[in-house]
Specification:
Blueprint lengths: L2 H20 L1 H5 L7 E5 L3 H6 L7 H4 L10 H6 L1 H8 L2 H9 L4 E8 L4 E6 L1 H12 L11 E8 L5 H9 L8
Parallel strand pairs: 2-4
Antiparallel strand pairs: 1-4, 2-3
Helix pairs in contact: 7-8
Length: 172
């Protein structure tokens, strides 16, 4: 990777991470207290589709098992598969691949799975491409993830975040 492109990716990644750290979800998961690292995903079709759907009310409402279901699980639900197969944003993302992008996630220590915090539509697009056997040369793109480890004792933060919601003014 050339130096300028790498610098741009790191700058964009830091902006995303900074946004998460100061945003509502960031405060709920105590993102400012976590140690973050940046990693290149080497097999995005497998790595991203196996990520867990993040603790957001809208996304979790589509799943029978909260905070433990992957993007693969989401698209195994026929209603969701059909929904996203025709979802303009998801289809547009899928048809535009490959491109450089970044995800933000937490690595759960209890099950060694990554929880997606930022990048749900892109994750669904990649998972849909996998299910459709769409050939995408991800060697032509840098797909990275900013990742922090979530200790087992802090797993409750995901459930609390889901209960509270990501709205600035949740219904009490």
């Amino acid at each position: 990777m050339d130096g300028e492109k790498e610098k741009l990716i790191i700058q964009d990644g830091l902006k995303l991470l900074q946004k998460l750290r100061v945003g509502l979800t960031g405060s709920q998961i105590r993102a400012d207290k976590l140690n973050w690292g940046e990693y290149k995903l080497t097999n995005p079709l497998v790595e991203i589709s196996s990520m867990l759907v993040g603790p957001y009310t809208r996304w979790q409402s589509m799943l029978p098992n909260k905070n433990i279901s992957s993007f693969n699980d989401l698209l195994e639900i026929p209603e969701r598969y059909n929904q996203f197969r025709e979802h303009d944003t998801v289809v547009s993302i899928m048809n535009s691949m490959p491109f450089d992008t970044e995800f933000i996630g937490l690595l759960r220590k209890d099950n060694n799975k990554i929880v997606c915090l930022e990048g749900h539509h892109r994750a669904v697009a990649i998972t849909l491409a996998k299910k459709l056997n769409k050939k995408i040369d991800f060697n032509k793109a840098n797909i990275i993830i900013s990742l922090a480890h979530l200790s087992e004792k802090d797993n409750y933060l995901l459930d609390d975040t889901l209960k509270r919601g990501s709205s600035k003014n949740p219904k009490e």
